[in-house]
C-alpha cells in the first residue's frame, strides 16, 4: 500500500487521461485514481494475508498429521524390534547412522544434486522400517541360539518381502505418502548386495536404491557390534575390518568409502546408545 501511495503522489499528476491523445488530467481525476489504487492494494494485501495465514495453518496441521503418523509407525516398529533387540535402541542407532552417511554423501560431487535435506530427513525417518517384516518370522527362527539351517534361513529371508507387503498395504490406503514408499524400498532391498548375490530379488549395483545401499552398511555394522543369543558383539575395529572385506561384493564401493571416512562418527553413535563394553582387540572372532 505504501508503494501505491508514493507512486500515485509522484506519478499521478503526470499521467495523461489518454495515451493516444496526451491530454493532461485534472487533479481530482488523479486523486480518485490514487484512492482506487490504494483500495485495490489494500484488498490484495488483506487477501494475501488471509492466504498466508491459511497456508501456515494447513502446513501446521499437515506437519502435526505427519508427526502423528511417524510416531505411530515408530511405535509399531519398536514393538516388532523388541522381540530380538537386546539393547532396545537398534532402530534409533540405524536412523542416526543413515542420516550421518546420507549427509556426508550430499557433500560429494556424485550425489550433491541427488541428495537434499528432504532426502536426508526421509532416510532418517524410514530406515527404522528396514526389519519391520520380522514381525512375521516365527520366534523359534528369529530367536534361535545358533546358526540357522538352510530351510530356516530361507524363512528368515522372507522378512524383506513381508515388510514390503505390509507397507504396500498402507501405501494403497495412503497413495500420497512418499514416506511409506521410501520405507518399502528400504525394507525390501536392504539385503541386496552390490554383486547381485543378495536377496530377495538379486539386484546388483545401482539397481539397488541408494537408500537401501546406505541402510545395508549401517545395519551390518550394528549387527556386528551387537550381542545376540548366538554370538558376542564385535569391537568397532573388528566390525570395520569385516565390512571392508565386503567392498564391491556386498557393499557399494563409493558409499562404503564415505562410511569408512566417517567410521568414528558411526562408532560415536553406537556407543552413545549402548556404551563401549568391548575392548578394542581382535579377540572377538
CATH architecture of the largest domain: Orthogonal Bundle
Structural class: mainly alpha
The largest sheet, given as strand count, sense and whether it forms a barrel, is: none
Per the principal axes of the C-alpha atoms, what is the gross shape?
elongated
Ends distance: 75 Å
Number of helices: 12
Write a structural description.
The protein has 285 residues and is mainly alpha-helical. It has two domains: 1-81; 88-274, Hypothetical protein af1432, CATH 1.10.3210. Helix content is 62%, strand content 0%. The protein contains twelve helices and no strands. It has helices spanning 2-11, 27-81, 90-106, 117-126, 139-142, 150-157, 159-173, 178-189, 210-225, 236-244, 253-261, 263-274. Helix 3 packs antiparallel against helix 4 (117-126), helix 4 (117-126) crosses helix 8 and helix 8 (178-189) crosses helix 9 (210-225). The longest helix has 55 residues, at 27-81. The protein is elongated, with a radius of gyration of 29 Å.
In short:
By secondary structure, this protein is mainly α.
Strand and helix layout:
Elements: H1 2-11, H2 27-81, H3 90-106, H4 117-126, H5 139-142, H6 150-157, H7 159-173, H8 178-189, H9 210-225, H10 236-244, H11 253-261, H12 263-274
Helix pairs in contact: 1-2, 3-4, 3-9, 3-12, 4-8, 7-8, 8-9, 9-10
Amino acid at each position: 500500500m505504501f508503494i501505491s501511495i508514493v507512486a500515485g503522489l509522484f506519478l499521478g499528476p503526470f499521467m495523461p487521461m489518454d495515451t493516444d491523445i496526451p491530454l493532461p488530467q485534472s487533479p481530482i481525476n488523479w486523486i480518485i485514481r490514487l484512492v482506487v489504487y490504494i483500495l485495490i492494494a489494500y484488498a490484495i494485501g488483506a487477501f494475501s494475508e488471509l492466504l498466508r495465514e491459511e497456508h501456515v495453518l494447513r502446513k501446521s496441521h499437515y506437519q502435526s498429521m505427519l508427526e502423528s503418523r511417524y510416531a505411530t509407525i515408530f511405535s509399531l516398529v519398536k514393538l516388532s524390534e523388541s522381540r530380538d533387540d537386546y539393547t532396545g535402541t537398534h532402530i534409533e542407532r540405524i536412523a542416526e547412522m543413515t542420516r550421518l552417511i546420507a549427509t556426508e554423501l550430499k557433500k560429494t560431487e556424485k550425489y550433491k544434486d541427488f541428495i537434499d535435506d528432504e532426502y536426508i530427513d526421509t532416510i532418517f525417518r524410514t530406515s527404522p522400517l528396514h526389519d519391520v517384516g520380522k514381525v512375521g518370522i516365527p520366534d523359534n527362527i528369529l530367536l534361535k541360539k545358533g546358526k540357522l539351517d538352510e530351510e530356516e534361513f530361507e524363512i528368515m529371508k522372507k522378512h524383506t518381502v513381508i515388510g514390503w507387503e505390509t507397507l504396500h498395504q498402507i501405501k494403497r490406503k495412503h497413495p500420497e505418502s512418499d514416506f511409506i514408499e521410501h520405507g518399502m524400498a528400504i525394507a525390501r532391498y536392504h539385503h541386496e548386495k552390490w554383486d547381485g548375490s543378495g536377496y530377495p530379488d538379486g539386484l546388483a549395483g545401482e539397481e539397488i536404491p541408494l537408500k537401501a545401499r546406505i541402510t545395508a552398511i549401517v545395519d551390518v555394522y550394528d549387527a556386528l557390534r551387537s550381542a545376540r543369543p548366538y554370538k558376542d558383539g564385535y569391537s568397532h575395529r573388528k566390525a570395520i575390518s569385516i565390512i571392508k572385506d565386503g567392498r564391491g561384493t556386498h557393499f557399494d564401493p563409493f558409499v562404503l568409502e564415505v562410511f569408512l571416512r566417517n567410521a568414528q562418527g558411526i562408532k560415536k553413535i553406537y556407543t552413545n546408545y549402548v556404551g563401549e563394553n568391548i575392548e578394542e582387540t581382535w579377540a572377538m572372532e
